[in-house]
Input
Amino acid sequence: MKIKPFAGVRPPKELAEQVASRPYDVLNSAEAKQEAGEKSLLHIIKPEIDFDPIADEHAQVVYDKAVENFKLWQNRGWLVQDPKEMYYIYAQTMDGRTQYGLVAAANVDDYMSGKIKKHELTRKDKEDDRMIHVRIQNANIEPVFFAYPDVDEMNKIVADWVASHAPEYDFVAPDGFGHTFWAITDDAVNARITEIFKNIPAMYVADGHHRTAAAARVGAEKRAQNPNHTGNEEYNYFLAVIFPESQLHVIDYNRVVRDLNGLTPDEFLARLGESFDVTDMGTEIYKPTKLHNFGMYLNGHWYSLTAKSGTYNDNDPIGVLDVTVLSNLVFDKILNLGDLRTSKRIDFVGGIRGLSELQKRVDSGEMVAAFALYPVTMRQIIDIADTGNIMPPKTTWFEPKLRSGLVIHKLS
Output
């Protein structure tokens, strides 16, 4: 893999907590407006919040405001360019567990050639929107989230640097997640990191498929516009935080449905019994315990559903996934939901909200049943990416999310 250090644009130490924000796609505009303090990066990544009433995020005046705010934050010293190229380390702590990522500039060619591997489809309209933001700012304001196969030497470099150097930033965000950040200022260490990654065969998009695709497209666009292109220009790279796969933890991504396709609850349970061993677990929340075991909440009761042998294919990287099993045996066979990407009869609930959120949405009458899934593993994600397959929609949920604004990568 080809990565490089870069001269990041980032907040002074005393302002980092005020500037850093949650990513653009985990907040709607109203939530962002309420959450944004004076110096928050949200004014740059969701500038529609600076209008009253909140403006259309795709309006030209909003894109213009994004550029204006990025310049303003730099003029006011809220974002400052580092004097030299370097790598950074970004650690996130959640529930007592810490994961350490390398902040680097990843290479556009590696994405275009498939060495940076994806496991999700992207939508062109969302890619186009992210492209506009990269293009108008001439910068990657927010990072993408990659994984790579563990390398002992790389893990030791990170551990040694963290143990022997004070962090640039160290704070706990309002959501309770810790964020700690170091700058690797030693040129020899940075050079060694670059060499190590030359021997890593692939990296994997964990989160940020649309941002990755958009950044690569902008790089290709700038390349075509430059008659003197050499391949070494900064626009050939984009901002990524790269974690060793062993440190990443994928949490569950669950489903709620609005109807039972005309069936009564008893009829639905009987149909489930054709493909699952169904056990009534009572009123206490039931969390799946293993692959091919599901929790279901229906009519005030939780059920354990265990797929019967022969109803799934563990030798197929897609067939082994519980989202595939549930889709085939329930959403297609019984509920006839159609395309889950567009169906209005289903919704998806990230596991960070807890299984009580599933029960709440059913008890409110908004939904009729909920399904809790056992989370996929990083190994499953890598197997799917390596075989060129695409995961079903809403399969992976990574937490904690990367904080935006700790460092920015300019394209020139």
Q: What stands out?
A: The chain has a mean pLDDT of 94. The chain has 13 helices and 21 strands. The CA atoms of residues 33 and 49 lie 5 Å apart. The radius of gyration is 23 Å.
